[in-house]
Amino acid sequence: MNYYEQIFDNLSQTLGENQALDDIAKIFLFRNTKFSMPENLNKTDVFFQSNFIQYLQQSHLQTDDWQSALSQYFRFGKIDNDLLEFFLNLDEENTIFAIRLSGIINNLEHLSWQNIKHHQKNYSKLDEFIQTVEYLNNQYQEIRNKYLEIKKKWQWTHLDSILLGGLYLYEFVLTQKEYVDIVIPYQIDTNTPIKQEYIFNALHKIIVNSYKNRKLLTDKNLRPTLDKKLSPFLYGENLNEFKIKEYQDFQIFIAFRIELDLFEDFVFNKFSYSKTTKYTFRNGNLNHQSGKQEYDFYSEKSGILWLYWKWRGIKDFDRSNFSKDKFEYWAKSNDPMWITEAFADTHSARLLLKEVYGIEKIILNDNQEYDIFYTLFTIYMQQQYYKNVFIEPFLMLYHLRKFHPFKILGVMTMGNFLVNTNFYPIITGTKGNKAKNMSQSWIVEGSNRSKMKQMTAILDFWTVNLNDNNKDGYVEKPFYELDGRIIQLPQRIGQQNIYGGIVNYLRKLYKNRDTLKDETSSMEKSLAELFTQKQFKVFCQYMPNDNTVGEIDLIVVDNQTVLIIELKSTFLKTNLKEAYQYQNFTLKKASYQLDRKLKYIQDNYQEFTDKSFDKIKFYSWIVDTTLEADHERFNQHLKISLEELIIYLKGHQNFMDFYKNFDDFDTKNDEINNLQVLIDKIENNHFWENSLQKYQKLQEIGE
After folding, report:
1. What is the pLDDT of residues 217-241, one digit of tens each?
2. Same structural domain for residues 253 and 328?
3. DSSP state, residue 104
4. SS3 state at 440
5. Residue 131 placed within a domain
6. Which of 54, 179, 208, 232 has the fewest C-beta atoms lying within 10 Å of its C-beta?
């Protein structure tokens, strides 16, 4: 018997065959297992070749767990022909749904597709499904082919794409209101709203995947290149049909790139992972149905949390890493208001990283340690500079004179609008000069040489090297390096979400950092300390006597109330596939783990208290660093955000009152020192209901 057959045999003897089938699917999906496997087989092969598969009934395949398990087989292997026939006969519709969940519908070269198509003519629903998938792939490929035709026609280099992209952002993005859906030229699907982030992401992909420059970029050839590409549009000099056509094609190119991205997420991913989304291709027509989803207030909640950390940064303004001496040093070459804003944002981000993610040091896989204060302060000062020197003056003239954006740029660049300021749509300088200037302006401590070394490392931290064949495509890095020069798009940096960027930089781009385990431990201990300050009895990183239960992150006891917490730390999800995998694997696995931990604590309650009560109330929460699936239940376990819990434990639940008149307020009256009261407020969604009302009023005032 293989590993899973042995477990199933034991389960069926104690629980019966039906329950054993339910449990073995959970064990496959959520239990960390290591066992020897035959050559050329993986975990899914072993599981689905087990003898208990023959006992499955249609009712099993209707469950989320068995659908997810079967989807893993399609995704990570080549499904056996006879086994696929077995599942199709058992439940054709849910087998098709498992194929969707596997995420392979936009990869018709996947090994499983050969066997799936083998059964096409024998099953009507499968036949219709395959025709639908092929039609969607053909649609996607048509758009992609047009995209690639334009790319081949113009063969834009990295620098070409940056320059044309800079013009595009000024004309079509900067003139639009931030956080409002944008209408772009040549938009393919006019029914889909275009958000600013879609454009930034699309342009970033275009830039990093452009052709390499034909010549080494130098001071000597840079200026003529800039003049040749930009001057015709800014000043009207030598603007001919060829240049107009090139810029028009670049606009179409961006529209195609955005459409491809949206197709991947809102067609392929939504069809794959949403049960309520249905596509059917019949009689040459594509039909689409999408069920209504309950609005989750994700963006509003994100805005509230951003305001919270902003308030914390302002509140603690005079504390760590800030002094009169530093302020005077920075003010020699920077506007005092920029410094104040940048420092408050830096401190807010540091508090977020420390209190939510346990990050107090930035150490990447190269073991290089980056000063966390100056790494954040650098990007926030850059943002302040570009907002105040580029974006605000541009918008002021744009709204005042009602000129075309390019004419405004022409006025700014030719008219000495500000002395010694280059108002081209891009900013560039040698890496050495930029590091020298920034280090002398912003880094207070150390010799000039050590400052220069530190700033060079910080620039590398925030930069995508376009000459690197292994360059990443993460938009969290807003600087580009090309032939030893740093190139920036002012409007992108000026409007970038740095809070979300730094989180995903460290939690997604560098998710395998050596310090991750220590950071997770620090999160658990910090949360335990907040509970301890309330005089609750707290057990942190508790290891039960039963080693099958696993470590319990947090147990909090207050009289007859017991709270068990499973703490997770994940990145911010940027597409539907990430959100699905998070909810159906990360959170369901946490729920599976909590089932065992809750039962252990219920059975062994006397280990945690020396008091005796007639009735004990047990609560179990999945607490995570993200807002996805906020206040949803997984089995009996409530999922909440760590930030909401921190806000309550610090007595900050009414922090938004600060934004009424920007006066601080006393939080002592908001402190909760009774665990049952805290649980009731959180489980009844008290904080979000109150805060969302206050947030809406702030938005109305802002409009």
Report:
1. 988 888 888 888 898 999 888 899 9
2. no
3. -
4. helix
5. no
6. 54
